[in-house]
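REQUEST ID: PR-0412
SUBMITTED BY: lab tech R.K.
PRIORITY: routine
TASK: structure prediction, single protein chain
INPUT:
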Amino acid sequence: MVAALLLLAGCAEKSAEEKMTKPESKGMRNADLLLKGDSTVYGLACEGCTDSVVVLLPGDDSDPITFNIIEAHRNHKVHGKLKVGDWVGLVRNPEDSTVADLVVNLDELKGTWCYVVMPKWRNPEAARMMTQGKDKAKGDSLRDEFFIPREYGFSLKRQWTAQSVGYVRQASGLEDESPVVYPRLLYFTEWHMLNGKLVMTSGEMKKQADGNMKVENNRQDTCDILFLGKDSLVLGSEGEFRSYYRRTGEDEINKLARQKAEERLRKAIEETR
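STATUS: complete
OUTPUT:
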């Protein structure tokens, strides 16, 4: 998710034993929706949480447990500000079960996260020639018209569901004739934690014989959470990272890009009359 999130073109593929367990019916418990092999401890933050300890009410309704997080803080492994009642996931130290090596505020992780992408020329050689000599003005005009930034990203929701954001609807014929191409947008459907790492499930949108669209060729990609703040998220994988910003008004996402797509569609319709 950082090469493809990143993800957004390909993080580490999960091993077979880490594949998701698929719920067979709605209304399943949260524990039934977890990934196989996940040892993350989930629960709610209680009164008494400080920079030194996390007091966690486990999801199995057992008594609150206090975890030492001094070293986790020093190692920048406490992600998100903990507030009473927040849903939290933590990874125990393998040698001392009273110590948490990593803590993530999952309620703070939920929401819509975006980053900016730019298109590339469909034909780089033709574009290079247009941006030189007598055609430079034409090339500059095309760049101003088509090099519109877009926002890509995902929404992390309740019950481990996810949704892609950033799709700009336009006529397929106009898109095929456009002098620029945008990076491929993955379709996210689920998110999970796996021993402190973020796992995203995505696929490709395919048109079915009945005309409906369906996400196929699902895959799971794994990333490290490097930073989580109120409005910032940084994900990393295999030495690469990507920064995201939080979006609260989804109607504003790609507003300019949608306006440009609508203008080109209107222009194309007028030219055919």
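NOTES: DSSP finds seven helices and 17 strands in the chain.
REVIEWED BY: pending
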